[in-house]
């Protein structure tokens, strides 16, 4: 289910990152200013080809599948343990479980996430990407591979806390009104979609800052750029202030439409599939246990 989800949404990520890539370098021919989501899709396709909409797919798949498996497994175990402490209907159980699971997952896959974002923001060959990474490591050390980690944590931990709290709340409401023990795929899909929209809108500013940090990977030391200028090392809140001062508060919500269009179905597919197969295998295990007895 992780594989299917990320194949569907990598195109939207490419468009979203394209919106935010405002820095320029002579060797790379950017498609210009985007006026909207569909304008971005048209210009990116026209300048770079239809395949460019799926640029960054390889590192996305490499990081997404194990990260998703790890994240959901850790969340489920933490949630079960915390419910025993706080009670089944307490909002603190999903909030804490989601936050801890996401923090662990983000830390593990952060370098691959950085590479994926770089590939989606610029049309680079694997050789050029490798060169940019090598120059960055020589200049700033291996810690540079975690560029954007702080912004990612500030985005993903609140996102997971909000998402899981909303999801479990919506789920409990459906269980109560439908008078059932488990909700089916359709209701899980709906709960996941609504929760994803709410969480993605609230945390979008941190996603914008994270993208700005990660697309700078190797950018100031590439061809035809001044090699004497060190890579920018800007903190999260400094980028916040610069964006607000230069482009206004609305710049923190750049790419809102493609982000919501990506996150809502992604969350819906993931949680709907997860709940469906969780129920399926639970029932299978019960049947097998009865046969053994």
From TrEMBL:
GO cellular component entries: mitochondrial inner membrane
Repeat region (Solcar), residues: 1-81, 89-173, 183-280
Pfam families per UniProt: Mito_carr (PF00153)
Membrane-topology descriptor: Multi-pass membrane protein
Example GO biological process: mitochondrial transmembrane transport
Keywords linked to the UniProt accession: Membrane, Mitochondrion, Mitochondrion inner membrane, Repeat, Transmembrane, Transmembrane helix, Transport
Matching InterPro entries: MCP (IPR002067), MCP_dom_sf (IPR023395), MCP_transmembrane (IPR018108), Mtm1-like (IPR045315)
Subcellular location: Mitochondrion inner membrane
Family in the record: Belongs to the mitochondrial carrier (TC 2.A.29) family.
Name of the protein: Mitochondrial carrier protein
Organism: Meloidogyne graminicola
Lineage start: Eukaryota, Metazoa, Ecdysozoa, Nematoda, Chromadorea
């Amino acid at each position: 289910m992780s594989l299917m989800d990320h194949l569907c949404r990598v195109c939207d990520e490419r468009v979203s990152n394209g919106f935010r890539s405002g820095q320029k370098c002579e060797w790379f021919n950017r498609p210009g200013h985007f006026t909207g989501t569909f304008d971005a899709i048209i210009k990116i396709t026209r300048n770079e080809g239809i395949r460019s909409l799926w640029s960054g797919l390889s590192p996305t798949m490499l990081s997404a599948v194990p990260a998703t498996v790890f994240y959901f497994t850790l969340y489920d175990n933490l949630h079960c343990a915390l419910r025993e402490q706080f009670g089944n209907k307490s909002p603190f159980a999903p909030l804490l479980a989601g936050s801890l699971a996401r923090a662990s997952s983000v830390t593990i896959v952060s370098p691959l996430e950085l590479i994926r974002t770089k590939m989606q923001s610029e049309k680079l060959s694997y050789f050029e990407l490798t060169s940019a990474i090598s120059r960055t490591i020589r200049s700033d050390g291996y810690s540079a591979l975690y560029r954007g980690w702080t912004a990612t944590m500030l985005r993903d931990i609140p996102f997971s806390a909000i998402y899981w709290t909303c999801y479990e709340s919506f789920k409990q409401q459906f269980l109560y009104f439908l008078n059932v023990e488990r909700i089916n795929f359709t209701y899980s899909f709906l709960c996941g979609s609504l929760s994803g929209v709410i969480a993605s809108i609230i945390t979008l500013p941190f996603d914008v800052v994270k993208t700005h940090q990660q697309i700078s990977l190797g950018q100031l030391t590439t061809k035809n750029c001044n090699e004497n200028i060190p890579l920018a090392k800007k903190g999260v809140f400094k980028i916040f202030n610069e964006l607000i001062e230069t482009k206004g508060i609305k710049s923190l919500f750049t790419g809102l439409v493609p982000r919501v269009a990506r996150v809502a179905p992604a969350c819906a597919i993931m949680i709907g599939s997860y709940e469906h197969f969780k129920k399926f295998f639970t029932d299978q295990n019960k049947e097998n246990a009865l046969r053994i007895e």
